[in-house]
Every structure is written in structure tokens, then in C-alpha cells.
Amino acid sequence: MAGAGVTALPPDVDPAARPSLEDYMDELARGLPGSRRARTAILAEVGDGLADTVEKYQAEGATPDQAATAAIEEFGSPRSLAAHFATELAGITAHRVGLALVCTGPAVGLVWLAAFVARGEGLGWSGELTAMLSTIPTYAVVLALVVPAALLATAGAGTVARRLPVGPRLAAAAASFAAIGCVVGDATLITGLIISTVRGADESWLALVAVLVSGVRLTLAGLAARRCAALRAAAA
Amino acid sequence: MRAEVLKGHLDGLMLAALEDGPLHGYAVMEALRTNSNGTFNLPTGTIYPALHRLERAGLVAASWSTNEGRRRRSYSLTSAGRKELAAQRANWQEFSSAMSAVLNGETSWPAPA
Questions:
Q1: What integer pLDDT is reported at residue A202 of this predicted model?
Q2: pTM
Q3: Touching A: B residues 3-32, CB under 8 Å
Q4: Number of helices (H) and strands (E), helices first, in chain A?
Q5: Is B82 on the interface with A (CB under 8 A)?
Q6: Which residues of chain B are modeled with pLDDT < 50?
Q7: Contact at CB, B24 and A168, closer than 8 angstroms
Q8: Contact B70 A11 (CB under 8 A)
Q9: To probe the interface with B, which of A25, A28, A88, A159 has the most B CB atoms within 10 Å?
Q10: Which of A90, A159, B58, B81 is the most buried (most CB within 10 A)?
């Protein structure tokens, strides 16, 4: 992200004040984790605030260089500021990951259940669900751990955060855990299907859909787990 | 006044600063400074993460605007933020009345004969 802070300063900042402000913004940019969009937004906001602060000191009679120094001192250490922003990003990201897992979980589960029913021998939905969970007991354990973790992750932001103030770091940890659990769960299901296919089971097209759906979720969950872990590590 | 003294009250102060309409981060800081006659002179760097915390909690909403080529992020109270502000005001009234009573030696019952 070196140099990314340069573009975040407003164009009307005094050229004499720009060098020290650019250094500050570059160091802030280096310490900010999260998505490119989130980092860009934070840098634009801080750049605007720095410009306002410089103008204030210049209006009080400071030279551009003095004003820039005073503004930077007022904003504090860029590393510390980045860590505080990382805390907020961790909470928001955890909330989104938790919501996504809670919403997609039942849908993915239904696709797999449909695949089992299509292959099954007329046991019906509840019978196939029981058979599926007993055939892959690991998945039942994963579900029992992942679902509460995903729900806890939603407490990273919004109304849930006000009612259950677990804090953004714990929410991000829960989101990471839930996402990793989804990766394990999806990998378990896909592996089980591959093994049964190799053994000669006649799989329907629904099985292929289930593999695709789980494959996509597995990939996205893995990326989400990595992002949440990085944000939690960078948080104040 | 030092920032650590305000810990725990900063959220209420920022919500109050936003009560009359949207403000961007620097304007929130200036409003706190002006309305407190210079008593609350917070480091600018503390205001932005604090505003993001309020946004994360759903108490304020943010929007971008462009003014004379400068992108500016402004914050406004949500309905949850207005409720929270009212609750913080009520809590503060109760707290400050109790503190005054104790610190100033006031009694709320008749002194014994």
C-alpha cells in the first residue's frame, strides 16, 4: 500500500504541507488491514480531516510546515490510528460473515439433503437427514460448533452488537472459527460424496449441484476466515 | 480536560453534537470544543474511530458528499441513535444529581431532630 495515502489527500492541500502529510498517510495506509474499498474510504476521510486541521492552524498564523506538524500531532500515531480503525473493521466484517453463514447454511444444507434424498431409497427427508448425519458424524459436530459461532459473529455490529456487546475482537474470532468450520464441513461433505461415487453409488445431478455450492462456499469461507483473523490481529 | 476523563461519555457527547444535523468528523470535534467553551478539546485522531464505532453500533449513519473537489464523509443520527442519546441524557441527569448531592453534602431527607 506504499504511496496509496498520497491519493487520499484533498487536491487543495497547501503544497508546502503535503510532504509530511503524505508520509503520515502512507504510514496509516500500511497499517490498515481489510478490503481495498474500506481502506480507501478511511484514507479519504482522514485525509479530509487532516486538510481541515492544517487549514485551521494556517488560519491561526502557522506556516504550512508548522500547520502540517501540528495536525499530525493532533491526529496521533498513524499505527495507533490504524489499529483503532482495524477494530471497527473487524466488528463490521465479523457481522457480515456471520450473517452470510447463517443465511447460506440452511440453503447449502437443503441442497445436500436433496442430493441424498434423490439418491436414497425412499426414506423421505427426515429419514435421509438422520442417515446423512449418522453417516458423516463429523458434520453434526461441525454444525453444533459452527452455528453458535456464526450467530455470535453477528454481534460484531448493528442491533445485535448493542444487545450483546461481546466486542469486535471476539466477534471476529467467532467469525473466523465459523468460517473455518464451514470449510471443514463442506470439505467433509464433498469428500464423502467422492468416496461414495468411487464405490459405485449412482449420484444424481443434484449431487453435482451440491458439490458446486459447497465448493463456492468453502472458497469464500476460507477467504473470510483469513480476513477476519487478519483484522482481529490488527485491532487495538 | 484529558481524554481519559471523558472515557465512557464520549459516545453521548458525539451523539449530542450530531443532534441538529449531519456533521463530518472535524466538525464534530469543533462542535464539542465550541459547545464546551474549550473544555472538551479532544485529539482529532480519537474522533474518527469513535464515529466508526457509533456507525458499527447502528447509532449513526454515514454518507459521502463532494464539496469543491473534496470528498467528505458526514454522519447523522439514526432513530436508534436518538433513543440512545435520550437514554444517555436521562442517565447523566440521574448521575450528576446524585454526584452533586454527595459531593456538596446535600441531603434528600429531613435532618434528624
A1: 62
A2: 0.85
A3: 24-26
A4: 9, 0
A5: no
A6: none
A7: no
A8: yes
A9: A88
A10: A90
Q: What are phi and psi of A214, to 5 degrees?
A: -65, -35
Give the pLDDT score at A1: 42
- Integer-rounded Cα Rg, in Å, for chain B is 17
Classify A202 in phi/psi space as left (phi over 0), alpha (psi -120 to 50) or beta: beta
**Cell numbers standing for residue A64:** 504550512
Whether the complex's predicted ipTM surpasses the cut of 0.90? no
Query: Across the interface, which of A45, A76, A95 has its CB nearest the CB of B73?
Result: A45
For residue A46, the chain B residues in CB contact (below 8 A) are: 48
Q: How far is CA A7 from the centre of its chain?
A: 25
Kindly give the interhelix angle for A78-119 and A125-135, rounded to the nearest 10 degrees: 120
Inter-chain residue contact A87 with B73, CB threshold 8 Å = no
**Beta pairing partners, B70:** B67
The DSSP line for A44-102 is HHHHHHHHHHHHHHHHTT--HHHHHHHHHHHH--HHHHHHHHHHHHHHHHHHHHHHHHH
Residue B86, chain A, CB below 8 Å: the answer is no
Residue-level pLDDT, tens digit, chain A, 236 residues: 445 555 688 888 889 899 999 999 999 999 999 889 999 999 999 999 999 999 999 999 999 999 999 999 999 999 999 999 999 999 999 999 999 999 999 999 889 888 877 776 555 566 666 666 666 677 778 888 999 999 999 999 999 898 888 999 999 999 999 999 999 888 888 888 887 777 766 667 888 888 899 999 999 999 999 999 999 999 98
Subunit contact A10:B71, Cβ cutoff 8 A: yes
| 8 Å CB contact between B6 and B13 | yes
Order the strands of the B70-77 sheet from edge to edge.
B23-24, B70-77, B60-67
* B45 contacts in chain A (CB < 8 Å): 74-77, 80-81
Query: With an 8 Å Cβ cutoff, are B45 and A91 in contact?
Result: no
Instruction: Decide the pairing of beta strands B23-24 and B70-77.
Output: antiparallel
Q: Where are the beta strands (DSSP E) in chain B?
A: 23-24, 60-67, 70-77
